[in-house]
């Protein structure tokens, strides 16, 4: 009889395991949920620290004069805290990067999607992915040691530190982002639309421009916005190659300073807490955070709102 | 009829020509990216290759270029990697499992999801400011290895969570159904049926995220990873430096010799990233067929 009782033994061990697993099934979701909540705490932490120190800063420097002042001179007297030169420097770099990366990235996406044979595609895509994985400090070196000397042959009076070189290299950095996200969006356009256009006698360019691009427009535009946001937050390339001269200029051959490279510059010295220099890190950081945050939200909104469903 | 055909063939010729011209333009644009990568590699290798020597591994950073090495930065980068890996793996995969397997689709979950994708787009220097305010000053951890590890973990978490979620989503539903049918509980199903087949994908994502982290410079400058460290960190509260920071320090010096050192440091950094990427791709290819 006893030999046929494994069933009973089994149920016994099962009930034992049940009670054990029931505890784990109660505790584990809570632990996992805490991991997920950590991301929320991170966001709260970012917003809280930026705001808290910025509030102290804005007690000494009125928000209005911070946002509209055209001189940034935080260390040398007369101290002035107008963020516009830093913002202008950032936008100059970003503008050059976008002018460089948008046409080339889009052309790249169209080529890979409509023209390239599968074999070429199989080589080019991984190469672009490598480009996306290069650390930004390496790009900084490239800007300073290769791109700037090359550009100095074209513009002999250009200094070592200039916006153009840094802007182009930031453009190279965001290029893979635009090409790969745009290509994904174009790839998602149904083949039947393409075949219909070909059947009507369209050329590949006409298919790309009049059929695929409009259908994939939301994804393509959102890739531009994301690249824009990435370029604004880029730090090491501009710190190494664009100089540290906060000035409002549209001349790409001049040295400028961006919001990010200012933050790096000031934090390299040991800034005592509670000083106004320490406050500038957070005020400029808050400005940077708000801009990139709004752009990221915009990119997500564009991708969702204008998506063509097939 | 004749005229119409003629007109059409003229039109089609013009359109074909413009199609071919644009083909060439698109190809040229695509090759710019590839040329840039080649130029970058050629520059760095020609500048730095003759500075590559065992001294680079055994010497500490120095003010004299010929004596300068990368010992403390290399060790710092490896420590950072080894400490970050388990922490970011556990927290990231935990969050991904919660969101994919437990949470359902309520409004709160969508908000957490939106929050994670937004965090992935926050500039890395902002994480540096967060680390400076919370870990270095707030918790009084100082400019230590621990501050660096915690800051960088927060930085890579969104990337790891998204990658792990994709890996979990790729596990076929019938594995879960089969597990439930055998009487397994939720956690047994997740841990014994879902995770094993998702783990290669998760590992690939984690390694790629970590390889991004060890190339990061700005956040660690913010929390004050020192550039002149002539000792190896012995505990979590010691100060430290990492390879990108030492490279940045060398680039910032006017002397050409230090730029060559920077290039040789970049070669080492790129080799390290290359190996990590090879491992990630290898894991992906080896296990992707088995699911």
From TrEMBL, chain A:
InterPro entries: MetI-like, MetI-like_sf, Phosphate_PstC. It is a multi-pass membrane protein. One of its GO terms (biological process) is phosphate ion transport. The chain crosses the membrane at residues 27-51, 86-111, 123-142, 154-178, 207-228, 278-299. Its main location: membrane. One of its GO terms (cellular component) is plasma membrane. Signal peptide: none annotated. One of its GO terms (molecular function) is phosphate transmembrane transporter activity. Residues 87-299 form the ABC transmembrane type-1 domain. It is found in: Cell membrane; Membrane. It holds the Pfam family BPD_transp_1. Keywords: Cell membrane, Membrane, Phosphate transport, Transmembrane, Transmembrane helix, Transport. NCBIfam families: phosphate_pstC. Part of the binding-protein-dependent transport system for phosphate; probably responsible for the translocation of the substrate across the membrane. Belongs to the binding-protein-dependent transport system permease family. CysTW subfamily. This is Phosphate transport system permease protein.
Automatic annotation (TrEMBL), chain B:
GO terms for biological process: phosphate ion transmembrane transport. NCBIfam families: 3a0107s02c. The keyword GTP-binding does not apply. It is a multi-pass membrane protein. The keyword Signal does not apply. The chain crosses the membrane at residues 21-45, 78-99, 111-136, 148-168, 189-211, 258-283. Belongs to the binding-protein-dependent transport system permease family. CysTW subfamily. Its main location: membrane. Residues 74-279 form the ABC transmembrane type-1 domain. It comes from Paenibacillus lautus (Bacillus lautus). Signal peptide: none annotated. GO terms for cellular component: plasma membrane. Pfam families: BPD_transp_1. It is found in: Cell membrane. InterPro entries: MetI-like, MetI-like_sf, Phosphate_PstA. This is Phosphate transport system permease protein PstA. GO terms for molecular function: phosphate transmembrane transporter activity. Keywords: Cell membrane, Membrane, Transmembrane, Transmembrane helix, Transport.
């Amino acid at each position: 009889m006893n030999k046929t009782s494994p069933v009973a033994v089994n149920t016994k061990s099962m009930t034992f395991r049940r009670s054990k697993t029931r505890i784990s099934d109660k505790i584990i979701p809570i632990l996992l949920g805490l991991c997920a909540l950590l991301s929320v705490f991170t966001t709260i932490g970012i917003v809280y620290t930026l705001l808290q120190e910025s509030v102290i800063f804005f007690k000494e420097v009125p928000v209005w004069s911070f946002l509209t002042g055209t001189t940034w001179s935080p260390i040398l007297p007369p101290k002035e805290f107008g963020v516009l030169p830093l913002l202008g420097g950032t936008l100059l770099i970003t503008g050059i990067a976008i002018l460089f990366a948008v046409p080339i990235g889009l052309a790249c996406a169209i080529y890979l999607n409509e023209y390239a044979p599968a074999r070429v595609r199989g080589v080019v895509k991984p190469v672009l992915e490598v480009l996306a994985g290069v650390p930004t400090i390496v790009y900084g070196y490239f800007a300073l040691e290769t791109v700037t000397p090359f550009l100095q042959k074209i513009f002999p009076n250009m200094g070592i530190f200039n916006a153009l070189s840094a802007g182009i290299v930031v453009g190279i950095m965001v290029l893979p982002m635009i090409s790969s996200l745009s290509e994904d969006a174009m790839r998602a356009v149904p083949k039947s639309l393409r075949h219909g256009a070909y059947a009507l006698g369209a050329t590949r360019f006409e298919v790309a421009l009049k059929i695929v691009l409009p259908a994939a427009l939301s994804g393509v535009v959102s890739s531009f916005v994301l690249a824009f946001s990435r370029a604004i937050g880029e730090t090491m390339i501009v710190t190494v190659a664009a100089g540290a001269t906060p000035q409002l200029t549209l001349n790409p051959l001049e040295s400028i300073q961006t919001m990010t490279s200012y933050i790096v510059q000031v934090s390299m010295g040991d800034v005592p807490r509670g000083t106004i220099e320490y406050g500038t890190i957070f005020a400029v950081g808050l400005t940077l955070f708000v801009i990139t945050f709004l752009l990221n939200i915009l990119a997500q909104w564009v991708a969702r709102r204008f998506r063509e469903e097939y | 009829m004749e005229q119409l055909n003629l007109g059409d063939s003229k039109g089609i010729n013009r359109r074909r020509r413009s199609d071919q011209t644009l083909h060439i333009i698109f190809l040229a644009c695509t090759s710019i990216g590839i040329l840039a990568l080649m130029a970058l590699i050629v520059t760095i290798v020609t500048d730095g290759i003759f500075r590559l020597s065992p001294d680079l591994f055994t010497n500490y950073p120095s003010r004299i270029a010929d004596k300068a090495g990368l010992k403390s930065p290399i060790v710092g980068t490896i420590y950072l990697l080894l400490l970050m890996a388990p922490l970011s793996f556990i927290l990231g995969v935990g969050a991904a499992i919660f969101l994919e397997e437990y949470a359902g689709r309520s409004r709160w979950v969508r908000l957490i999801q939106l929050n994670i994708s937004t965090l992935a787009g926050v500039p890395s220097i902002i994480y540096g400011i967060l680390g400076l305010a919370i870990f270095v000053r707030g918790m009084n951890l100082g400019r230590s290895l621990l501050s660096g590890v915690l800051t960088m973990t927060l930085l890579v978490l969104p990337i790891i969570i998204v990658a792990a979620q994709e890996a979990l989503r790729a596990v076929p539903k019938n594995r879960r159904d089969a597990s439930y049918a055998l009487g397994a509980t939720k956690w047994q199903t997740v841990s014994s049926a879902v995770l094993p087949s998702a783990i290669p994908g998760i590992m690939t994502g984690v390694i790629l995220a970590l390889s991004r982290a060890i190339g990061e410079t700005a956040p660690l400058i913010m929390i004050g990873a020192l550039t002149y460290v002539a000792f190896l960190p012995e505990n979590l509260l010691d100060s430290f430096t990492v390879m990108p920071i030492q490279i940045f320090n060398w680039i910032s010096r006017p002397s050409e010799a230090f730029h060559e050192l920077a290039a040789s440091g970049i070669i080492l950094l790129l080799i390290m990233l290359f190996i990590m990427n090879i491992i990630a791709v290898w894991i992906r290819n080896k296990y992707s067929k088995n699911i």
